[in-house]
Amino acid sequence: MELQERLAEVRDRIGKAARSAGRAADGVSLVAVSKTFDADAILPAIEAGQRIFGENRVQEAQGKWPSLRAEFEGIELHLIGPLQSNKAADAVSLFDVIETVDREKIARAIAAEADRQQRKPRLYVQVNTGLEPQKAGIAPDDTEAFVDHCRSELGLSIEGLMCIPPADENPGPHFALLAKLAARCGLEKLSMGMSGDYETAVAFGATSVRVGSAIFGSR
How far apart are CA 173 and CA 17, in angstroms? Predict the structure, then answer.
């Protein structure tokens, strides 16, 4: 199956999952995760109309997206991997959405750069729903206080929450928890679901899903 066929299939399955959950199909955005793929591999997705892409690393994204953006209008770029504070300036400059605000130091660095550059990327707080020690993210019990701190103390506009459930667990309870936390914080956007579980995420209210291998193939 060609990339454009795989992309069409993912879009179709998102639409079906949304309708099954009583939701509008256009209420779920597809973030095509293009990390590790070069510009030539990404091009067929852009030509098929895909405009929202996710990258894990700032430096890798810098190497391919400026030229693609110069050629194609309407590209929206999401940072979905961990951000180091020394890369905050580059991230604020390059990305439209940063989904991995996961600690005080990063929030402060983004706030400083957003002010300096007069550029305000949309922001998501990453929640470590499984409390996994090796994984980034705010603990669920600390999420409301952290979102409030970002808003009131740092002047950041938080758009939503993001999570990556433990690989060996049923993702449903984690998606349900994220939706509950978002409601408590007054947030409407939920970035959750990847290639193996995006339909489940849609059923639990995801407003965007991050799908890579189901579109681009294995890395």
Answer: 17
